[in-house]
Amino acid sequence: MSSKIRVATTSLAGCFGCHMSFLDIDERFADLVELVEFNRSPITDIKECAESDIGLVEGGVCNAENVHVLREFRNKCKILVAVGACAINGGLPAMRNHLPLQACLDAVYLDGTGVTNPQIPNDPELPLLLEQVHPIHEIVNIDYSLPGCPPSADVFWKFLTDLIAGREPTLPAELVHYD
């Protein structure tokens, strides 16, 4: 059995920029894989979340599938981390929250520029949209937040190496950016 710390990641309603920033730790990734076993993540293409020590969640919650995945992560991960502005406060996807959901759907699928076959998708395979986009802490309890849009590779590195070493993670002010 592996003595490595197991890390899982997922992306909900967002741009995947936080995952890209995580991958920007570049050559330090070789050091990280000596200490960490990746569970569900784009690195492994594993779709289900097994028991994990750390779960990194980027993106807000905008549909029923997001709720399911987030609850699964909370149940399977000892430590759950909200990563980036979308997970922490809804980010850009939450900009639709000041409008009724139906008005958003109409604007995109019925009245949008270039729409040639106006119809709102209604396939049972599509996840049910929520009326509002939620930050993840409104759905489950979180243990930590990594601020930024996205958090820098150095923030991921500092946070994870602190946790792996058994230290309470601290982020020096010079690492945290909100741009």
* CATH homologous superfamily classification: NADH:ubiquinone oxidoreductase-like, 20kDa subunit
What is the helical fraction, as a range of percent?
25-40%
The rounded Rg comes to 18 Å
Overall 3D form: elongated
Largest sheet features = 5 strands, parallel
Architecture per CATH nomenclature, i.e. the level-2 architecture: 3-Layer(aba) Sandwich
Low-confidence parts lasting 5 or more residues at pLDDT below 50? Answer: none
| Number of distinct helices | 6
The share of residues in extended strands comes to: 15-25%
Q: Could you tell me the number of beta strands?
A: 7
Summed over residues and divided by their number, the pLDDT gives a mean of 92
Secondary-structure class: alpha/beta
Topology pattern, helix = H, strand = E: EHHEEEHEHHEEH
